[in-house]
Amino acid sequence: MIGIAGVLKGIVKLASGITIGAAGAATTSTGIGVILGSIEIAVSVPIVAVGAAEASVSLGIYYASKKNYKNNLEKFNSSKRVDLDDVDLGKEAEKLKDGASKAELEVRQFNEEGKLISNIKYKAGEYDYLYETDELGRISKFETDNLKLTVRENRLPHNPDTPGKLDGDHEGHLAGDRFGGSPELDNLVSQSSNVNLSQYKKIENQWATAIKEGKQVKVNIEIKYDGDSLRPSEFNVRYEIDGKRYRKSILN
Question: Whole-angstrom Cα distance, residue 162 to residue 211?
């Protein structure tokens, strides 16, 4: 049976009466409120469930991974209400049966005040780049084993209110917009204009050129802070281009 009564970890809750037939199509005449973590998504489209299963569910619990949501939930990480289209929950449930971890279900990195939660690992951006926060909720690491260029033509507007910003500072992308980096505070930090427009940008240009040449780019950046300051003091940048390693420390 697909429907599971009760509350389980890492869930998508279908808070409405639905019927899942043998053919695997679940429909409802009213919108279904889907809750992932504590974020509500408006759903008014049929939901495809696992085939060859049959169950009637009035308040069901249905597992689903966040992984395949990214194309439909571009603004999901910023905890905004959005519309969900064409999501195959059945396939997502099958993935979880195969052993998807709790980390793959974690999609919420902001608290109710819009600040990053401390001591967590999360994914952000078009390509689910990996990040970590420290005990003060500051971004402490950004990494990816496969940096990519976005297929978008237009630059996304980004949040200008980076923590600890000083006069003259820029909102610096850890993963640049051209690499599909998030425009929210889960990917932005305060950077001096020299770091953002020169030192960091030169490295980004090297990455972009390598990707266009078909090379694999791996990136690992540690963000350092002085005391309890919210403004980064240093960026320790390590990266590989087709296996060749580079390292650079950038003072901010």
Answer: 28
**Each residue of 111-170: pLDDT tens digit?**
999 999 999 999 999 999 999 999 999 999 999 999 999 999 999 999 999 999 999 999
**pLDDT at residue 107 in the model:** 55
55 CB burial (10 A radius; 0-12, 13-18, 19+): middle
Catalytic site positions: 173
**How many angstroms separate the CA atoms of 223 and 233, rounded?**
8
Instruction: Calculate the CA 189 to chain-centre distance.
Output: 16
Residues in the chain: 252
Burial class (CB within 10 angstroms; exposed 0-12, middle 13-18, buried 19+) of 133: buried
Percent of the chain with pLDDT over 70: 58
H helix or E strand, kind and range, residue 206: helix 200-212
Cα 167 to Cα 170, 174, 183: the distances in Å are 9, 20, 21
In whole angstroms, give the CA distance from residue 144 to residue 129. Answer: 6
pTM (2 decimals)?
Answer: 0.60
Per the structure block, which two tokens stand in for 78? Answer: 């910023």
Residue 224's identity, in one-letter code, is K
Using alpha carbons, list the distances in angstroms from residue 61 to 88, 117, 226: 15, 26, 45
Residues of the chain with pLDDT below 50 are 1-87, 89-90, 92-105
Whether 31 and 71 have beta carbons less than 8 Å apart is answered as: no
Euclidean distance between CA atoms 173 and 142, whole angstroms:
11
